[in-house]
Amino acid sequence: MGKMLGLVMTGGGARGAYQAGVLKRIGEIKRVQKNGNPFPIIGGASAGAINGSALAAGSDDFSSVTKTLARLWSSLRPSDVFRCDGFSQARNSLTWIMDLSFGGILGGGNAHSLLDATPLRGYLSKNLPFDRIDANIKKGYLYVLAISATNYASGKSYLFLHGKKGHPMWNRSRRVTLATKVTVEHICASAAIPFVFQPVRLQTARGTAFFGDGCARLQQPLSPIIRLGAERILAIGVRGDNLEHQEEGADERIPSLAQVMGVLFDVMFLDHLTTDIEHLERLNQLLRDGHITESGMEGCEKMRPLQSLLITPSVDLSHLAEEHRGDLPYLIQYFVNSLGRDAASCADLMSYLLFSSKYTSALIDIGYNDASERIDEIETVLYSDETSN
Questions:
Q1: Would strands 144-151 and 307-311 be described as parallel, antiparallel, or unpaired?
Q2: Prediction pTM value
Q3: For the chain, what is the total number of helices (H) and then of strands (E)?
Q4: Can you list the positions of beta strands (E) in the chain?
Q5: Rounded to an integer, what distance in angstroms lies between the CA atom of residue 250 and that of residue 342?
Q6: Taking each helix axis from N to C terminus, what angle separates 16-26 and 375-387, rounded to the nearest 10 degrees?
Q7: Is 299's pLDDT higher than 70?
Q8: 3-class SS shares of the chain: helix, strand, coil, % to 5
């Protein structure tokens, strides 16, 4: 086996549609259509876990599954992800009011999330054939699928590995790896955005616990893929570099709750991937300059130069969300607006919750076009191992 290629996709709620657009364009590459799945190692967290599991389930026909994935995202409705009916929203709001107002007297802890993401489980079960992941591994179309989730009891990051027998396993102080068959429950757990979607209960070899979004503790998203043996990495982010930063001093007002939540989500979902890529590039440069040897220091893991490419949006997705905010159900709009003073302060938060077809279709188009602009770079990463032989 040559140098294995790993795919890394982190989270971002509705922003995951951007990744589907990039993947659709990759699926149209002639060599991909001829040779099949180019990613033997697939790692995903949050929305990236949904996309990663879809690719794993369809890795026997990669080009086809990328089209299917884009179609699913482009036809998505808010009701496919969370309950939008008035009764559910009113009941959830009342629970929060009771906890915040009378929890100290009556007993709190009844409010678990801002939205009820129960419909997502049914939608994924209906559209993603998880049972095919195991079959594709046995047939050699896939080496390993790695899904990250956060254990709310221990605070540790769990990595669920569904792969070929004998794949690497490791544990660290804040990281637990478990070999298991990935199911819809693992994906829902990985995609459970903190505060927004309720935690998901999982039964593991270590016992039963509630899990949430995989990005919450995933500070080094490239690490699992590298440990699994990838020596070439394609990462698809959902935040454009230097596109979403307001000038300091531009707004002297106290930030709204929606604005603070948006920034926190940016840090959790978006910043770690870019930082990890930058760290990898620095290590590669040190290796090339001879400041670090590939054998590494005594007692440490062997270090090797790794080829990587990061694809990120060419437009500001927060501004795009601001344009599409009217696509959300009225009660959800009302709720989000109540957390922010104006549309701009809600834009970041809205960009994660806009599970509407108009917005997701726009993200798919952007991802597709961004990948087209960099298709030569993508092909180089995908097939550099073949051209070097």
A1: unpaired
A2: 0.87
A3: 17, 9
A4: 4-9, 41-45, 144-151, 157-163, 175-179, 200-204, 207-212, 230-236, 307-311
A5: 15
A6: 60
A7: no
A8: 50, 15, 35
